[in-house]
Amino acid sequence: MNKKIISLLSALTLTAQIVPCALADNDAKVYVNDTEMVTDAPIIIENDRTLVPVRAILEYLDYNVDWDGATQKVTIAKDETTLNLIIGDTQATRDIIYKGNTHSYKNPLEVAPQIINDSTYIPLSDVAKAFALNITWDSDNREVHITQYKKGDLTPLIEFGIISDDDLNKGEYITTQEALNTIQKFYTMPSESYFNRWYSSDKFESLNNIDDSSKKLLIHLHSRNLLTLDDIAELKLEDNLTNLQALTYTIRMTGSTYDCSSQIKEIRLSEPSDIYSTAYERNFIDSEDTANAQSPISRANFYELLNKILFFNYSRGGGAGIYTTSLYKTLQKQVS
């Protein structure tokens, strides 16, 4: 998807059949990061499902939207996922880019997309499932709340316990040790027996001269595909974290599993240009320029980077096939 089609609504109303619907007593409200979606067409409830105008998806969620008049198809794309919907059809398709290949799946809808009073509506719940949106429903007030990335708002990181208010007031830069300890909080800590099994391994002989908590930290992050053995051998935990290190870890945190060993393909990226290119493609950074690769990343920029990846939708493979998820979704499950 190369561009957003701003004139989407006018194109749809010219080519699609209008489906009448009484909106009285049917209105609902949708909030994105506590900002109410305000559109020309109201957000409505039909058959206990929230329907939103396509323009709202375009303007408030910043997704790419396209329209094919010949087939009356709405295409919504974000990150590695594309959802294809057809007016009046309860069968959509979902395309996921996984390990460089596009995989297509049938995606049954709870409510078919439709034209209501000259506006195109799509079911929000189905968009949420396809793109791993973070949604809560307030039935008393008939409100839907969507949480997504907002620059400068570190509240989600604080609420999940990744960082604290005190962390925000610490020094300008962050050490590698502190950064890795922060990253570790995204994951469930293994049992003591897990670490005991690794202590005797020759692979971690280089860790014999560091304290026990640091040893556990590095073994844990190695098991999560975030640190290679070469990384561990070269780490200087007391040094400030560099921009290159920060980007390397974060693209691995949002990587796709590579094969049955659960290794991620991003673990194989080693050249700074490849790492910066991947981070740029995922909108983690604004430029592919590697000039700052070896410079220390500021604490504020590191936390902002973690805030970005928290909401990045990435693909994973499993017994149920390929699916879309996010670190936000994973953390939600851990605390629920």
Structure commentary:
- The protein is 31% helix and 22% strand.
- The chain has 336 residues and is of the alpha+beta class.
- It folds into two domains: 8-147, 2-Layer Sandwich (Copper Amine Oxidase, Chain A, domain 1), CATH 3.30.457.10; 155-321, no CATH class.
- The protein has a five-stranded antiparallel beta sheet with strand order 5-6-7-8-9, with helices on one face.
- The radius of gyration is 22 Å and the shape is elongated.
- It has helices spanning 8-15, 54-60, 124-131, 155-159, 176-184, 192-199, 212-223, 229-234, 243-253, 272-281, 299-310, 327-335, and strands at 29-32, 35-36, 44-46, 49-53, 64-68, 73-78, 81-86, 91-98, 101-108, 114-116, 119-123, 134-138, 143-147, 314-318, 321-325.
- α9 packs across α10 (272-281) and α9 packs parallel to α11.
- β8 and β9 (101-108) form a beta hairpin.
- Mean pLDDT is 80; it is low at 1-25.
Describe the secondary-structure layout.
Layout: H1 8-15, E1 29-32, E2 35-36, E3 44-46, E4 49-53, H2 54-60, E5 64-68, E6 73-78, E7 81-86, E8 91-98, E9 101-108, E10 114-116, E11 119-123, H3 124-131, E12 134-138, E13 143-147, H4 155-159, H5 176-184, H6 192-199, H7 212-223, H8 229-234, H9 243-253, H10 272-281, H11 299-310, E14 314-318, E15 321-325, H12 327-335
Parallel strand pairs: 1-13
Antiparallel strand pairs: 1-2, 3-4, 4-11, 5-6, 6-7, 7-8, 8-9, 10-11, 12-13, 14-15
